[in-house]
């Protein structure tokens, strides 16, 4: 009878009146569960240039997975550390960013934390749970979306605002019985590595898809992609015949292994030509506007290196300049069909212009290659974007503080030239394969989003009491009593008062 009476008392332990709270749980504040809430400091003048001493952890060291990124460690002198009376990091501390764009970001100091001793700076709070609480349980709560929202309810100030010491009293926390806390954490830490492994596999697939695209271009621009197609063709036209018709006496062919040229093997009816040889004779390879001047509403759009990406043009942040400045570079106004290559700034961008870009101009960071009419601009865009051409351009890149490719070097870039029908066939096949790759990548991204949500889904279930068996229910089944969260909280308060 005594046991049953105890069980009846424990069943009513969530007497806080929280509707929907799991049996035996209670809602309290973060302040009630902390033994220490403090932040650190840095020497006057900061820590720049200090290369040794005691590691000083700032908000930039807390990552989005609740752990740490120590790629760039800062230090305080040992003499300063010895004078610090707060901000010392201990195992099981929960660190919380207190201001700036990442306010509320949290990380748990686990047994494998690499620094002993270490401190936090003035931008990070140390939340040290009381000894009667299972620290990882509290960490996972404040790491969850629900916990983050509750912390950020205490945000004060503008975009550079943050939280102060009062945030702990204003942050509500769902508290479970101690035994249930440990089971919840054990289950979370059983499931999250599985989610992380899935996320890592998806990231690897994304890298594989990038390699796949480059493999397509390499195969296409060296003639392997259309090998079977060539065998089925009855035409005897060669690339040399095509170029003789288009260029006549201006034709220049690059012979492999002559003059130091080590070029990949290509089909017999293909040839290697310098990039300059393949251009419209009425236009030249050049770059555009040197000084853009201020942004002009309604002015002429100018494509910069940040706008010319790998095989596409991003128009979301195109700058507009005055017509007077743009007109001074009339030779680089786009007519459609040109190949653009980034030669300064963000190197590696290459794309074909289309009709919607007619009338745009380009900046000095971008080179214009006006491909000869009668050749397929898209094929030569693929050729320049291929790994072989990109490596060639990297080798001729010059400069120290501001690297770039000279127009003179770009003009002599060797490019493979197939017969025109094969150029068209290669473009068709590459675009079809890239379309397939796009579809796969969309599915990967959708799966990534679901995977990212899965972590928070697990935490949501955990703090609804749905992830592991409820301690009150287990006690009932086993015919025993249990310590409810309210009793645990009273014990914590009593110990704090005694201390």
* Largest sheet properties: 4 strands, antiparallel
Number of strands: 20
Number of helices: 15
| Main structural class | alpha+beta
Across the major sheet, the strand order is: 2-8-5-6
CATH superfamily of the domain at 236-418: DNA methylase specificity domains
Beta-strand share of residues? 5-15%
Please, could you describe this protein's structure?
The protein has helices at residues 2-11, 78-83, 135-143, 145-152, 167-170, 178-221, 227-232, 239-247, 323-327, 377-385, 387-396, 407-411, 420-462, 471-478, 485-498; strands at 26-29, 34-39, 54-57, 74-76, 94-97, 106-108, 119-120, 124-129, 172-175, 271-274, 286-287, 300-303, 308-309, 312-313, 319-321, 339-342, 350-352, 361-362, 366-369, 414-417. It is an alpha+beta fold and 499 residues long. The strands form 7 sheets. It has a 4-stranded antiparallel β-sheet with strand order 2-8-5-6, with helices on one face. A 4-stranded antiparallel β-sheet has the order 11-19-16-17, with helices on one face. Helix 6 packs across helix 10 (377-385). The chain is elongated.
């Amino acid at each position: 009878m005594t046991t049953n009476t105890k069980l009846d008392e424990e069943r009513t332990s969530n007497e806080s009146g929280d509707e929907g709270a799991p049996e035996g749980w209670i809602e309290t504040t973060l302040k009630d569960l902390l033994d220490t809430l403090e932040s650190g400091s840095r020497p006057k003048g900061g820590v720049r240039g200090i290369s040794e001493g005691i590691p000083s952890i700032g908000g930039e060291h807390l990552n989005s997975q609740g752990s740490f990124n120590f790629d760039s460690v800062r230090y305080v002198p040992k003499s300063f550390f010895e004078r610090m009376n707060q901000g010392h990091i201990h195992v099981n501390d929960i660190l919380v960013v207190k201001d700036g764009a990442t306010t509320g970001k949290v990380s748990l100091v686990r047994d494998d934390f690499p620094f002993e001793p270490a401190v936090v700076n003035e931008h990070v709070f140390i939340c040290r749970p009381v000894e009667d609480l299972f620290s990882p349980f509290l960490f996972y709560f404040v790491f969850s979306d629900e916990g983050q929202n509750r912390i950020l309810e205490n945000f004060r100030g503008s975009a550079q605002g943050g939280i102060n010491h009062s945030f702990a009293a204003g942050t509500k926390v769902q508290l479970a019985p101690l035994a249930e806390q440990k089971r919840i954490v054990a289950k979370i830490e059983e499931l999250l590595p599985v989610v992380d492994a899935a996320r890592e596999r998806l990231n690897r697939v994304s890298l594989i898809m990038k390699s796949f695209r480059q493999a397509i271009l390499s195969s296409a621009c060296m003639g392997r992609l259309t090998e079977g197609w060539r065998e089925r063709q009855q035409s005897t036209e060669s690339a040399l015949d095509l170029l003789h018709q288009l260029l006549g006496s201006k034709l220049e062919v690059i012979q492999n292994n002559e003059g130091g040229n080590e070029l990949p093997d290509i089909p017999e009816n293909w040839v290697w030509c310098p990039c300059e040889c393949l251009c419209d004779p009425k236009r030249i390879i050049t770059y555009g506007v040197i000084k853009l001047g201020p942004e002009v509403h309604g002015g002429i759009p100018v494509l910069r290196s940040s706008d010319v990406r790998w095989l596409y043009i991003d128009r979301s942040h195109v700058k507009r300049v005055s017509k007077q400045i743009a007109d001074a570079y009339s030779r680089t106004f786009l007519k459609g069909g040109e190949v653009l290559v980034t030669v300064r700034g963000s190197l590696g961008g290459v794309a074909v212009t289309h009709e919607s870009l007619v009338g745009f101009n380009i900046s000095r960071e971008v080179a214009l290659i006006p491909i000869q009419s009668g050749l397929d601009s898209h094929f030569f865009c693929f050729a320049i974007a291929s790994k072989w051409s990109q490596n060639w351009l990297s080798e001729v890149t010059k400069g120290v503080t501001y690297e770039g490719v000279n127009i003179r070097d770009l003009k002599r870039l060797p490019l493979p030239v197939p017969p025109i029908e094969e150029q068209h066939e290669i473009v068709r096949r590459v675009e079809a394969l890239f379309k397939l790759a796009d579809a796969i990548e969309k599915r990967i991204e959708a799966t990534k989003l679901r995977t990212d949500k899965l972590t928070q889904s697990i935490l949501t279930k955990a703090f609804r009491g749905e992830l592991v068996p409820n301690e009150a229910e287990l006690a009932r089944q086993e015919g025993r009593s249990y310590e409810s969260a309210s009793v645990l909280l009273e014990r914590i308060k009593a110990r704090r008062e005694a201390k």
